DNA sequence: TATGAATGAGCGTTCATTCAT
DNA sequence: TATGAATGAACGCTCATTCAT
């Protein structure tokens, strides 16, 4: 996976994967049909812990919706956006169009579920009066957009200009939930 | 450029580029040092009209900041996000890490300028009282995040679930500028 | 053996042989030094029953030489030429030049013995007055030539044009022994 | 072609072909789609001069059918059976079953035409009273069988026991046309 | 004796790059 | 300036062979 992340699908050599895995080249073919299916399977298995790592954070009891979303985003940013795992997301963006199976899987397992979860939260926030804008439930993408931006920024521009993703997300939450008096 | 967009750097063959360009393969080397520098130059020259297309929209006289931003976003979404040009952005996200020159150029010419422009608008909005959240000026990324999301969504998931990017952006603007009474 | 017949030496995989034999791949190496010697041994052991099947037909008591030869040829054609066994002969023709040990063995065990037998018959036929051409004893190959042709035809051209090998052989015998009045 | 003859299809390496042809390996792919089609095309183009070499011998004026056939066979044996060209025939026998296109072509261009020519000669021989056995026309294969045997013998057994193919063929002709008084 | 996972040399094929024309 | 045939390094993949169990 590290090799695919570092070089992309086409530029990654089976030789390097084998070397890094500490096995002979032929051994790879005992586990995978070919390079393509290896890539797809690796992505698939890499996504599961990615989702787990996010989903496993239990919402604190008696928490406001804002706290829940903030918790969620903080976990994502700390555990994904600012680590090598974030590059998996970038890898999917990069190779998705040429690997429909990857894009399909990602949409099904991560995107649609994640958005459904976000939508539920938004609706809860609306019901509780924490969120005023009722249309937000139609576009839960807005809620997560800055987190995704953070992932991309990290890979491409962090050395040009560091970005405090958590701070950014808090400002974003202020837009949605209203500004807090204390910051 | 079309070929690079469709297949990525590594999977694109000079043969196909030459065919599409209507020249012989050898002719390419009269204009470019090698495949890498051709890619970098093409990206560079492709970005300019991309920026032009956005920047050229003159702000309507006497417009509110919201109108200006909305105009801007509408142009971007119509002219970039929902067309093949949007894939250039995705291409940069995909190949950027392996082509620092590309990422550098993109940051310098597009991202930093774009964000500076956004920041100026945000500050104008704050000054005029249109925008309440003063912290937004620290993170102009938030302003454009949904537009970028739209680009990525278009490439990867539009066939799974179409996304009305303009509607989404309007909701996003409502978060920033406050909800309009009439929609 | 079936695998070697179907695909030739080089294109046959030990994997398939092991599967067909119902053993693990490694087990093969307990019985054979390597693929080459396995091929040679298999050919050797396959030839024995091939010869047996032909040689075992007892000449009918009081038979004419022509009857003996015809019997012999009929057995060969029915038991070898028109069955999978015939392909062993073709396999030897195909791989012989690259496996001198195979060609040597085949020459020693089958060809020279078979020709010696044919020569004896021809001489008997000449002695009994059944065969007029005394020179035939110098080239017993002529006697069996149509049978070999039948084997090759079967493998290569039977689907283009079927060949009644037994009828052909009878005509051939007519040339040697003189035409019979009744057909 | 020499390489295929010497080693068979599967065991022949493109490297060796390129080396022998004095070109780089990649150059091969400017002329042939892949190894298989190269093999098929080479066989095809090798057969043409093979046929030409035989068919070009003009029948001597006022020749008997026996003379014509003998001439024909002598040319075949001298120009094909006892030279490297004969191995092309053996190669077809060897690889034909795995290359239906080759077997088909060979049947169409060589076998069926050759047999038709032989049949015509036989019928002429019958008409002229040179050949008594009218059934021979049904199996022109018999006429050429010893010539084919000679080809195979040459490849496999000539070092064990040399075979005078021309002498053998004369005896064979004696069987068909009747023995000549003088030899 | 039997296994089958692991090996790695070797093959067919591709494609960026060169250069004689 | 333009060509495109030729190159050959490099890659994905196969498969005969080995060896720890």
Write up what this structure looks like.
Four copies of one chain form a homotetramer. With 183 residues, chain A is mainly α. The first copy, chain A, has a single domain, classed as Tetracycline Repressor, domain 2 (Orthogonal Bundle). The first copy, chain A, contains nine helices and no strands. The relative contact order of chain A is 0.11. The mean pLDDT of chain A is 91. Chains A and B meet through helix 1, helix 6, helix 7, helix 8 and helix 9 of A and helix 1, helix 6, helix 7, helix 8 and helix 9 of B. The structure holds a DNA duplex (21 and 21 nucleotides).
Topology:
The structure is a homotetramer of 183-residue chains.
Chain A: H1 2-11, H2 14-21, H3 25-31, H4 35-55, H5 65-81, H6 85-95, H7 100-127, H8 140-157, H9 165-177
Helix pairs in contact in A: 1-6, 4-5, 4-7, 5-7, 5-8, 5-9, 6-8, 7-8, 8-9
Chain A binds a DNA duplex (21 and 21 nucleotides) through helix 3.
């Amino acid at each position: 996976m590290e090799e695919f992340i570092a070089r992309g699908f086409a530029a990654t050599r089976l030789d390097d994967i084998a070397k890094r895995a500490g096995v002979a080249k032929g051994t790879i073919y005992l586990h995978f049909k070919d390079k393509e299916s290896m890539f797809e399977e690796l992505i698939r298995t890499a996504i599961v812990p990615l989702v787990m790592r996010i989903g496993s954070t239990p919402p604190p009891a008696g928490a406001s919706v804002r706290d829940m979303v903030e918790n969620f985003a903080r976990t994502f940013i700390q555990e994904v956006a600012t680590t090598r795992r974030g590059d998996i997301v970038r890898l999917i963006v990069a190779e998705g169009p040429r690997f429909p199976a990857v894009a399909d899987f990602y949409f099904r397992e991560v995107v649609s579920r994640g958005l459904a979860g976000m939508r539920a939260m938004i609706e809860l926030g609306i019901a509780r009066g924490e969120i005023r804008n009722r249309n937000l439930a139609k576009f839960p993408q807005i809620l997560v957009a800055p987190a995704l931006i953070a992932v991309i920024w990290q890979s491409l521009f962090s050395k040009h200009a560091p970005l405090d993703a958590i701070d950014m997300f808090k400002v974003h939450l202020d837009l949605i939930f209203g500004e807090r008096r204390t910051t």
